[in-house]
């Protein structure tokens, strides 16, 4: 007989909304840093292509967060990959550690364990 541990979990509860909102707020912190780099890229000698690449990745991260909200598994898989790629770009190109990206990754993985996994059967 199949174990049905999460049968009583509602699709969108307060905890689900809280996890999505918290992840979105931390995404905004990371986006703010990227926009600051964009506004100062001429003074700091950061190439325009690098800042543009970061903003494209930010747009993809926001799209993945929307996919997670609409119960799509591809969003759950791509979100941490894109955040990690964003972090690695900062680490290897600018030689800095973007803590907002690491916090975003940590919160998403924690939310995934607490909120997404019980609703995994609902994801398509």
Structural description of this entry:
With 124 residues, the chain is mostly helical. The protein has one domain. 74% of the residues lie in helices and 0% in strands. The chain contains five helices and no strands. The protein has helices at residues 14-39, 41-44, 48-69, 73-94, 99-116. Helix 3 runs antiparallel to helix 4 (73-94). The chain starts with 13 loop residues before the first helix and ends in an 8-residue tail after the last helix. The mean pLDDT is 87.
Which descriptors apply to this entry?
5 helices, single chain, mainly alpha, elongated
Tell me the layout of helices and strands.
Elements: H1 14-39, H2 41-44, H3 48-69, H4 73-94, H5 99-116
What gyration radius follows from the Cα positions, in whole Å? 17 Å
Structural class: mainly alpha
Number of strands: 0
Instruction: Sketch the major β-sheet.
Output: none
The geometry reads as: elongated
Instruction: Give the count of structural domains.
Output: 1
Order of helices and strands: HHHHH
Concise structural overview:
The protein is built from 5 helices and no strands. It is an all-alpha fold. The chain has one domain (26-122).
């Amino acid at each position: 007989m199949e174990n049905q541990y999460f049968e009583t979990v509602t699709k969108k509860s307060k905890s689900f909304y809280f996890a999505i909102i918290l992840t979105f707020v931390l995404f905004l912190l990371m986006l703010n840093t990227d926009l600051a780099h964009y506004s100062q890229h001429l003074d700091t000698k950061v190439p325009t292509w690098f800042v543009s690449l970061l903003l494209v990745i930010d747009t993809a991260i926001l799209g993945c967060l929307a996919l997670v909200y609409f119960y799509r598994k591809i969003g759950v898989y791509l979100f941490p990959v894109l955040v990690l790629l964003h972090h690695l770009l900062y680490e290897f190109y600018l030689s800095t550690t973007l803590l907002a990206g690491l916090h975003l990754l940590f919160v998403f993985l924690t939310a995934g364990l607490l909120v997404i996994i019980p609703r995994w059967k609902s994801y398509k």
